[in-house]
Amino acid sequence: MAEPETTAHPDLTDAPAWRPGDDRPDVASMLRVDQAGEYGATRIYAGQLAVLGDRGQCARTIARMAAQEERHLRHFDELLPARGVRPTLLQPIWSHAGHALGAITALISPNAAMACTAAVETEIDRHYSEQLRTLGAEDPALAETIREFQADELEHRDTALASGAEDALGYPILSAFIRAGCRAAIALSKRI
Fold first, then answer.
1. Contact 185, 40 (CB under 8 A)
2. How far apart (Å, rounded) are the C-alpha atoms in residues 89 and 191?
């Protein structure tokens, strides 16, 4: 009896982790929303510093966090054209809304400014975690950037909490309102 003919199979270790028809990460929308988020954060901090000035511990803390957000924004500003991704069309709205949110929370109190940071960074942490799950091993360079920036955002949240965020008047309501706004901005920036 003759041996069955065997066919050599190509090495499948280089095959993509997805198959045709599988959902794949929408990296373009990820980059668009991440750039919009970093831009929005810079505008929030600009609004807070416009009210608080450059005096006091709160202002110095915000200025340090703002510098990190500027670095994040520069990175995404470079990534968008390099990857052929357009920014969100809502950027002019985020500019005014972010600055207003920062100024209003700083006018309420330094603790309210920190409550704003804690709320925003809580949502950004959740958002970045979701992106990392979605990416899997699909884009290691982007995943590494997200992990690095997520660590900075968690540091900002923890700093804000340690600086009295939860002592802000109406903290639970203020936090819930800001977090809901962040979720809406994320959803809109992905698509528009």
1. yes
2. 9
